[in-house]
Amino acid sequence: MNGLMMEYHLTLDRILEHANHISPHKRITTLQPDGTLHRYTYADLYRRVKQLAKALVALGVQPGDRVGTFAWNNYQHLELYYAIPGAGAVCHTLNIRLFPEQLSYIVNHAADKVVFVEGSLLPLYERVADQITSVQHYILFNTPSDTQTRLPNVLFYEDLIESADEDFAWRSTDEQMAAGLCYTSGTTGEPKGALYSHRSMYLHALGAGQANALGVRETDVVLPVVPQFHAMAWGLPYACAASGADIVMPGLHLKPEPLAQLIEAERVTIAAGVPTIWTGLYHELKNNPRDISCIRALVVGGSAMPRALTKAYESELGVNVLHAWGMTEMSPLGTVCNLSSQHAGLSDEQKWDIKAKQGYPICGVEMRIVDELGQELPWDGRQMGELQVRGPWIIRQYFKRDISAESFTPDGWFRTGDVVTMSPDGYMQIMDRTKDLVKSGGEWISTVELENAIMAHPQVLEAAVIAIPDAKWQERPLAAVVLTPDAQALTSADITTFLEDKVARWWIPETMIFVDEIPKTSVGKFDKKVLRSRYAEGQLG
């Protein structure tokens, strides 16, 4: 039967309209480059987004055009999140930490028509400007209007907004229109684009807001430390507007000290970022205590949070850690690790064992695990298999690429490349990436689990494990270890002794290298391909 329900397209402008009607007084705060705070409301956001969208149309932006953003987390970037899709175009967030050749590849591959560039990042972008072929206009912000630049056809953000009024009809009229574009970090091969529709992003915002997911609500003050160029800041800018939560943007101030100050001063209740951010914040808080009891959920994603760090935050600082997992291809949220009612009677140690996992799939994400032959495996908490996912906010192919059997199954599931276990009650634990597992003597060693065990040592700040060739065992693990600033004379023998009752003896690396820093990808993950390259060149071991 047809015609029973009203036709209602799930477009992002509806979220902004809702925020303007229901939460016009709620605040958006940005820590500016000069350290001052910029504050305004959802009503101000709404008005400026309308002006900006109208100005983009006047500039010649057509439905489907890609518009790039090269910026930190701030209120202007938030305006672009709504104005670009509202104008019918696609908001393409550019990763500011990419190598120049990757950045130029992505801008050209997306064929960005307009690019917004933040002033502090202008020198980074100028390095690739002469390699860009598609961009017709550059718009600068957070920089003086007399700024000199090599970029052609430059306009200034506030001038652009002032050139238009608020009388604008949204051009996002169909929920299947493309709204966002994010590229993977390109750790293997060229970066690949994930194109998001209005419908997928709208549903993702509702998914993130579920009570059993991130549970964003009107009383929250949300600090997205995760960059806005990283999978649309995990959808938080949309989830916050949908719920009416206050937003705090850190701008370029991502060091532990200003983040600690911001959390305390603004009474942040939800903060979201990668483990390396929370590692630095923990040590800052230990050395310079502050009141961060306001946080009800310290959301961690991007890579696994070491169990020891989760325990430290909860037992020492009283901060609830909420593990989450997802991928750019998933918009990105897939799982969260809230404790369930069945866990109420467990000891703290048992609860931390569970919270070290990545958690259960939120409603809207389906999961299965398969063996090397593609056969589905049971959820018994023991058998490891490749995780495959599907759902309304998961891509079905990459932008401008044919559907590949390497990434997608014939029956429509996305192959994540993560090797996981699933418990009978649906809690997923990542054991490794398929390419990172160590196969030693015919048996698998999980580098993630081994890294977490090493990082449980109180004098270890970070640890990354890679496979190295071995004549007898085929492969053996090598551990690159970074010590804490206050560490004493820790040796590899000390770490070996520490590991003996925590992992299988044959897992323990014979080779441990102490380094000053572990290389990281553009989104803060350990860059193991760089470690492998350094080992191959004789720079490790």
Can you offer a commentary on this structure?
The protein has about 550 residues and is of the alpha/beta class. Helices cover about 30% and strands about 25% of the residues. It has 3 domains: about 10-25 and about 35-205, 3-Layer(aba) Sandwich (Rossmann fold), CATH 3.40.50.12780; about 255-435, ANL, N-terminal domain (Rossmann fold), CATH 3.40.50.12780; about 440-535, GMP Synthetase, Chain A, domain 3, CATH 3.30.300.30. The protein is built from 15 helices and 25 strands. β19 (about 415-420) and β20 (about 430-435) form a beta hairpin. The longest helix is centred in the N-terminal third of the chain and has 17 residues, at about 40-60. About 50% of the residues are buried. The mean pLDDT is about 95.
Q: CATH superfamily of the largest domain, called what?
A: ANL, N-terminal domain
Residue runs with pLDDT of under 50 for 5 or more positions = none
* Helix coverage percent: 25-40%
Question: What is the residue-mean pLDDT, rounded to a whole number?
Answer: 94
Strand order of the largest sheet: 2-1-11-10-12-13-14-15-16
Count of DSSP strands: 25
How far from one another are the termini?
69 Å
Cα-atom radius of gyration: 23 Å
The CATH topology of the largest domain comes to: Rossmann fold
| Main structural class | alpha/beta
**Number of helix segments?**
15
